[in-house]
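Practice problem 4.
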C-alpha cells in the first residue's frame, strides 16, 4: 500500500562519529525503517545480493544474512533475533531504525560505545534454596547454575578480574536483592546463568538474553504492550548490553558446539532494573534429552564457564578496538580492563572470520 509510506531523508549522527550519513527514512505503521542498501553502504559491505527475499551482504571480514518477513539476522553465522521483521515495500528491502541503532550499530562498531573495559564481573547463579528452577532426573537448574558460576569465578580470578557472586551457596536470593548487589559494583558487568525448560522435548540449544530497548516487544511475546513503552533504568546500557551479549553468545556457540537459538530480547528484572551492563544466559534445556545429559557433565559446565571468560575478554577488546598504540599505552594499568592489552587487542573476536566459522563455509 503506497499511501501509508512517507520517505524522509535525514542525517543521523551516531555517537562518536564525525561524519554524517544521509539515511532515507521510510515510515510504515508508525515505525521508521531504513533501506538495507544504505545499511550495506554505511557499513562498507562491498557485495550485496538480493535473490528473492534473501539478503546477503559481504565485506572484507563480515557477512550479514537475513530475509524479508523474518526476524532472524546472521552476522558471520551468529544468530540475532531482530526486534521487528525485515520488510519489503515497493521492491525496497527495509530494516527497522530501532534494529539499526540498537543492534547493528553497537555490534558492528563496538569501539564507538562510550564505555570502558570492565574489571569486575558479577556472576549470578539463577534460583536457589526452595526455588529449584527447571529440573531433570539428572539434577536441578539451581545446582547446575551455581556450579557453572563457581567454575567461571575461578577462571575470571585467574585472568585478573574481581568477581562477586550474588549467591555462593544453595540459598534463595530475591531478584531485587541481586539487582541492588550488582548496582553496588563499579566498572562491572552482570552475567546471570540459567538453564531452560521447554514444553516440547525437541527444543534444545543455547540462547542469550539482552534487555529489550524501550519501545520494542520481548522476543517471546507476539505484540507490543503498554509496558514495553515504559522507561527502564537498564536501558541506559543498551549499547553495552547488546555488545556483551554478542561477545558471550559467540563464545558459547563456538565453544559448546550446540544449537544456536540466538541473541534475544527480554525484560527480566535482573536486566531491567540494573545500572550495569548485563546478560542472561540459558545454557541448554533440561527438558531436551541431549542437552540434559550434557548439562549434567562437569566437562560441559567447564566449557560454559570458559565461554563466559572468553566472552568478557572479547567484550573488553571490542570496546578498545581501533585505538592507537599510544592511547593503549596511556590506558594500560589505568582504566583498561583485564585482558584488554593482550595480543589481538584490536579485533572483535566473535565476528572475526578466522575465529567464527561461517556455517555455509564449513559445509563446503
Ligand atoms: Zn532459570
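Answer key:
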Amino acid at each position: 500500500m503506497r499511501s501509508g509510506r512517507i520517505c524522509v531523508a535525514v542525517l543521523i549522527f551516531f555517537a562518536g562519529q564525525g561524519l554524517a550519513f544521509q539515511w532515507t527514512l521510510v515510515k510504515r505503521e508508525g515505525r521508521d525503517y531504513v533501506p538495507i542498501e544504505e545499511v550495506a553502504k554505511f557499513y562498507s559491505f562491498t557485495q550485496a545480493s538480493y535473490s528473492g527475499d534473501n539478503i546477503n551482504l559481504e565485506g572484507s571480514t563480515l557477512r550479514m544474512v537475513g530475509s524479508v518477513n523474518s526476524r532472524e539476522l546472521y552476522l558471520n553465522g551468529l544468530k540475532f533475533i531482530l526486534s521487528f521483521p525485515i520488510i519489503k515495500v515497493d521492491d525496497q528491502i527495509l530494516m527497522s531504525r530501532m534494529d539499526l541503532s540498537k543492534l547493528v550499530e553497537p555490534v558492528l562498531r563496538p569501539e564507538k560505545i562510550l564505555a570502558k573495559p570492565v574489571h569486575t564481573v558479577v556472576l549470578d547463579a539463577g534460583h536457589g534454596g526452595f526455588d529449584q528452577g527447571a529440573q531433570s532426573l539428572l539434577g536441578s537448574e539451581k545446582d547446575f547454575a551455581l556450579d557453572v558460576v563457581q567454575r567461571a569465578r575461578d577462571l575470571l580470578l585467574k585472568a585478573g578480574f574481581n568477581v562477586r557472586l550474588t549467591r555462593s551457596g544453595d540459598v534463595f536470593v530475591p531478584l531485587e536483592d541481586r539487582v541492588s548487589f550488582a548496582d553496588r559494583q563499579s566498572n562491572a558487568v552482570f552475567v546471570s546463568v540459567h538453564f531452560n525448560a521447554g514444553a516440547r522435548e525437541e527444543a534444545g540449544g543455547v540462547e542469550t538474553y539482552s534487555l529489550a530497548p524501550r519501545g520494542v516487544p520481548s522476543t517471546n511475546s507476539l505484540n507490543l504492550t503498554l509496558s514495553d513503552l515504559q522507561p527502564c533504568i537498564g536501558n541506559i546500557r543498551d549499547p553495552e548490553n547488546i555488545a556483551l551479549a554478542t561477545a558471550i553468545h559467540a563464545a558459547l556457540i563456538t565453544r559448546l558446539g550446540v544449537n544456536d537459538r540466538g541473541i534475544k530480547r527480554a525484560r527480566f528484572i535482573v536486566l531491567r532494573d540494573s545500572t550495569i551492563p548485563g546478560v542472561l544466559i540459558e545454557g541448554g534445556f533440561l527438558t531436551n534429552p541431549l542437552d540434559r545429559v550434557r548439562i549434567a557433565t562437569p566437562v560441559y559446565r567447564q566449557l560454559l564457564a570458559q565461554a563466559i571468560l572468553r566472552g568478557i575478554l572479547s567484550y573488553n577488546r571490542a570496546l578498545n578496538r581501533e585505538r592507537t598504540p599510544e592511547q593503549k599505552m596511556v590506558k594500560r594499568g589505568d582504566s583498561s580492563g583485564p585482558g584488554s592489552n593482550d595480543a589481538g587487542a584490536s579485533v572483535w573476536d566473535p565476528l572475526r572470520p578466522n575465529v567464527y566459522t561461517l556455517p555455509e563455509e564449513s559445509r563446503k
